[in-house]
Amino acid sequence: MTAVDPGLPLVRVGRRYRFSASHRLHAPQLAAERNREVYGKCNNPYGHGHDYVMDVVLAGRLAPDRGRLLPLEMLDEFVRRVWLAQVDRRNLNVDLPEFAALVPTTENLALVAARRLKQAWPHWFAGWPAELEKVRIRETRNNIFEVSASEAEARGSESHEIVVESRREGA
User: Fold this and answer.
1) What is the per-residue pLDDT for 123?
2) Does the predicted model carry a pTM greater than 0.70?
3) Closest listed residue to residue 137, CA positions, set 115, 157, 107, 158
4) Angle subtended by helix axes 72-79 and 106-125, to nearest 10
5) Which 8-state DSSP code applies to residue 72?
6) What CA–CA distance (Å, rounded) separates 26 from 32?
7) Element spanning 115, H or E
8) 115 — phi, psi (to 5°)?
């Protein structure tokens, strides 16, 4: 983040995106019965899909000469290229390399999204006073998952993620 006067007001901006994707929640190291216990109907061998809603939240000090953290059109293009183009209308188990080693729960999906966006952020927004703060993904009306971008970046693929052996040939 560019050095900005800490006396300037801290502003948060949220932007909402939608994508559809399918997945199957299954840990190959678990027995079939245990997978059904842990993942319930989400362990369907044919998978299932969701219409996800993702909120991307930025934070930064608002400089009076610009009056905004960054151009929203630029943010939209960034999210489209870095995330949406990779996941929309895709099978998460097959089409995202991270899920060769992770069960594609929405918790893990939010971590992967935050990590990808955070890693690409400096290449797109150098010189702008905004930083990626968090990613929130709504899977259903009742299931919403949120992750801090700095926490996702710092943790790598450890901690609360469910790691499984690779399911890909040659991986």
Assistant:
1) 94
2) yes
3) 107
4) 130
5) H
6) 9
7) helix 106-125
8) -65, -45
